[in-house]
Design a protein that fits this description.
six-stranded mixed beta sheet; Nitrilase/N-carbamoyl-D-aminoacid amidohydrolase; alpha/beta
Length: 277
């Protein structure tokens, strides 16, 4: 049987307990649908009015209510769970946190950690200066370390949100023979409308991988608005499942045989010419 994967769409706010309850409910729904690998969006546990508000909820690596809730949900439902980002404290940088994407196996044990590399320090085009973000003020960038973890649905490469605009990360993951790419996100409504689907489908096509992309949707504290449209994209670039708005389990099958056949008959990754240097 083909495994079923899912992007879990949320509208997170500044109430951690409420956000964790929503996440647990969605994980339970995913398990009921036979999902073996579920992915929560970026900032699923907390989205405050200001970037630095997350510092109040930073946890030590391996201990804390957010991490405990994730491990318990994975174990209770016997599901592999990817936690979009969790704010983890940094001993050498107390004024910032790591935006850590954590993976839990079906026993509740942590299987992988990836710290978001590319930080969203931008003024959104077309906003007239009204939308400015500086994640680096509260988040320390992760070091270059492409992370791949073996899951029941296939080899999964980890990334987060703004990473999506940097194809070299995904090519590095593809070189590690991934089957799936995860992109938990909180894309702004304006950038999401313009680029979200376009970039997700491009990453799927150029790396011949399934892409699982859970997003935040709707309005959040501080006036931020996110795009939603969580989706699963197939390795030919086809959108296999998508939901524009609302809390949702966006699920699709991974057709392993078709993906293998595609890579054999259309061997893009073997046809690369990097040139002489």
């Amino acid at each position: 049987m083909n495994p079923i994967i899912a992007a879990l769409q949320m509208n997170s706010g500044d109430d951690v307990a409420r956000n964790l309850a929503t996440a647990a409910r969605l994980v339970g729904q995913a398990a009921e649908q036979g999902v073996s690998l579920a992915i929560l969006p970026e900032n699923f546990a907390f989205m405050g009015a200001r970037e630095r508000d997350k510092l109040a909820h930073a946890e030590a690596d391996g201990a804390g209510p957010i991490q405990d809730a994730l491990a318990q949900a994975a174990q209770r439902h016997r599901i592999w769970l990817v936690a979009g980002t969790v704010p983890l404290a940094l001993a050498d940088d107390p004024g910032r946190v790591a935006a850590a994407c954590l993976v839990y196996d079906a026993s509740g044990a942590r299987a992988a950690r990836y710290d978001k590399i590319h930080l969203f320090d931008v003024e959104v085009a077309g906003s007239g200066g009204a939308e400015r973000y500086r994640e680096s003020a509260s988040i320390a960038p992760g070091r270059w370390n492409p992370v791949v973890v073996a899951t029941p649905a296939g080899r999964l490469g980890l990334s987060v949100c703004y990473d999506l605009r940097f194809p070299e990360l995904y090519r590095a993951l593809a070189e590690r023979e991934v089957d799936l790419l995860s992109v938990p996100a909180a894309f702004t409504a304006r950038t999401g409308e313009a680029h979200w689907e376009l970039l997700l489908r491009a990453r799927a096509v150029e790396n011949q991988c399934h892409v699982i992309a859970p997003g935040q949707f709707g309005g959040h504290p501080g006036g931020r608005s996110t795009w939603g449209h969580s989706m699963v994209v197939g390795p030919w670039g086809e959108v296999l499942a998508c939901q524009a708005q609302g809390d949702a389990v966006v699920a699709a099958e991974v057709d392993r045989a078709r993906a293998t056949e595609l890579r054999a008959s259309f061997p893009v990754l073997r046809h690369r010419h990097l040139g002489a240097h």
